[in-house]
From TrEMBL:
<dbReference type="InterPro" id="IPR050176">
    <property type="entry name" value="LTTR"/>
</dbReference>
<dbReference type="GO" id="GO:0003677">
    <property type="term" value="F:DNA binding"/>
</dbReference>
<dbReference type="InterPro" id="IPR036388">
    <property type="entry name" value="WH-like_DNA-bd_sf"/>
</dbReference>
<dbReference type="InterPro" id="IPR000847">
    <property type="entry name" value="LysR_HTH_N"/>
</dbReference>
<dbReference type="InterPro" id="IPR036390">
    <property type="entry name" value="WH_DNA-bd_sf"/>
</dbReference>
<feature type="domain" description="HTH lysR-type">
    <location>
        <begin position="12"/>
        <end position="69"/>
    </location>
</feature>
<keyword id="KW-0804">Transcription</keyword>
<dbReference type="Pfam" id="PF03466">
    <property type="entry name" value="LysR_substrate"/>
</dbReference>
<keyword id="KW-0805">Transcription regulation</keyword>
<comment type="similarity">
    <text>Belongs to the LysR transcriptional regulatory family.</text>
</comment>
<dbReference type="Pfam" id="PF00126">
    <property type="entry name" value="HTH_1"/>
</dbReference>
<dbReference type="InterPro" id="IPR005119">
    <property type="entry name" value="LysR_subst-bd"/>
</dbReference>
<keyword id="KW-0238">DNA-binding</keyword>
<protein>
    <submittedName>
        <fullName>DNA-binding transcriptional LysR family regulator</fullName>
    </submittedName>
</protein>
Length: 299
């Protein structure tokens, strides 16, 4: 019900609007709940409060999806503008002195899956810091750090090796990925999709195949996880991937499929010893993001 015109209009809670935008962007109450650090039930209560104030439904929901209503789409534009103005105003008082450019390196796989989320949230909290990103292989990123061409970088590392001065952010298994219902793993020699020397996943996979005496051939080579996925989905090859990278149309191939165990890998971060305040701010934000991802079971 609309408020009578002779009464003051209600004020919208920015915290509720932040939750509303998170749901609209993720299409999920559960995913949005983890991003705003609330429980799903608390998020549902916030949206009910918002809809009660407006007297309109902002989402249409069924068992599998959440979509904006026409009123919700109109509100989304206002919500984003209100949150942006709030961030701009608050940043003038809270982070007025942190200004600069940060040169960040990342492997392709995490640059695609995690960095967009990290950088978006960082830009919201630190609008005066610009982050320039370099995507490359881990071995090249470490060289760039040694040459002082980067201020900090993420890099993948074998769990059998010391992180080489890096701070481990996560550890997870590398698994054999195949197409759901596919038969690539049954072929002899085994068709494998990998990249060239320097890739931690490649090293672990080929070591495992050698240990088991399994014949293989490199059927597909790609430096990008998108290419690896294409080879898997076409059932051209199997590929070593982090377990969290498996898509809904992929399956993990284990001992029951005749595939050897590869082991784990780690993602680490190294920060320049001469790190400035902006660099330290980016590093702290990355640490906090991966802690949330671990706590929510994303890795």
């Amino acid at each position: 019900m609309n408020a009578p015109l002779n009464h003051p209009l209600p004020l919208l809670d920015l915290d509720v609007l932040r939750t509303f935008v998170a749901i609209a962007e993720t299409g999920s109450f559960t995913t949005a709940a983890s991003s705003v650090y609330r429980t799903p039930s608390a998020v549902s209560m916030q949206i009910k409060k918002l809809e009660d104030i407006l007297g309109r439904s902002v989402f249409s929901r069924d068992a599998r999806s959440v979509k904006l209503t026409t009123d919700g789409e109109m509100l989304l534009g206002y919500a984003r503008r209100m949150l942006a103005i709030n961030r701009e105003a608050v940043s003038k008082f809270i982070v007025p002195d942190i200004v600069g450019v940060v040169r960040l390196g990342s492997p392709d796989d995490f640059g695609e899956r995690v960095l967009p989320h990290v950088l978006k949230r960082f830009a919201q909290s630190h609008p005066c810091i610009a982050v320039d990103v370099t995507i490359d292989q881990s071995v090249n990123l470490r060289r760039r750090m040694d040459d002082r061409a980067l201020d900090l970088t993420l890099f993948t590392n074998s769990c059998k090796a010391i992180a080489d001065g890096g701070e481990v952010l996560l550890t997870e298994p590398i698994v054999w990925a195949g197409a759901k219902g596919g038969g690539a793993h049954l072929r002899e020699p085994l068709p494998v999709s990998i990249w060239e020397e320097g890739c931690v996943w490649r090293a672990g996979a080929l070591e495992a195949l050698g240990r088991e005496g399994r014949d293989y051939r490199v059927a597909y080579m790609s430096a990008h996880t998108a290419g690896q996925r294409a080879a898997i989905m076409a059932d051209l090859a199997v590929a070593p991937l982090p377990k969290s990278f498996l898509g809904c149309d992929m399956v993990e191939l284990g001992a029951e499929h005749g595939m050897p165990d590869i082991g784990n890998y780690s993602l680490a971060m190294v920060v320049s010893p001469e790190a400035s305040a902006p660099v330290k701010a980016v590093a702290d934000h990355i640490r906090a993001t991966f802690e949330v991802l671990r706590q929510t079971g994303k890795f």
